[in-house]
Design brief:
There is one protein chain. The protein has 2 helices and 4 strands; from the N terminus they run E-E-E-E-H-H. By secondary structure, it is an alpha+beta fold. A hairpin with a 4-residue loop joins strand 3 and strand 4. The protein has a 4-stranded mixed β-sheet with strand order 1-2-4-3, covered by helices on one side. The chain has a single domain, classed as Zincin-like, CATH 3.30.2010.
Length: 94
């Protein structure tokens, strides 16, 4: 299991624990930590980790704090922050 990821030059911890079925996962920006339910099957684990990685990418890039999202800002965040981090994650998972 993944214990941390590099996102936009920041180390983001990945914590696996029982979330009591409330969520599959969530990103806590103040802790730079992704929490993933330890009871997920492999498919749900990967899609949840990808989802939370995108949440982290938006917040770490600053886009997540905008009052309204500009299309170009979101696209640049995904291109320059999310995809590089996700590509590194896929290499580690394979």
């Amino acid at each position: 299991m993944i214990k941390s990821l590099m996102v936009a030059g920041h180390r983001v911890k990945v914590v696996h624990r029982d979330l009591d079925g409330e969520d599959f996962g969530y990103y806590a920006h103040d802790k730079r930590t992704i929490f993933i339910d330890s009871n997920l099957n492999e498919t749900n684990y990967h899609t949840t980790l990808r989802h939370e990685l995108l949440e982290a990418s938006l917040l770490l890039s600053g886009v997540g704090f905008c009052e309204r999202y500009e299309q170009e800002a979101v696209v640049r965040c995904v291109d320059e922050v999310f995809w590089p981090a996700y590509d590194r994650l896929l290499k580690r998972l394979s």
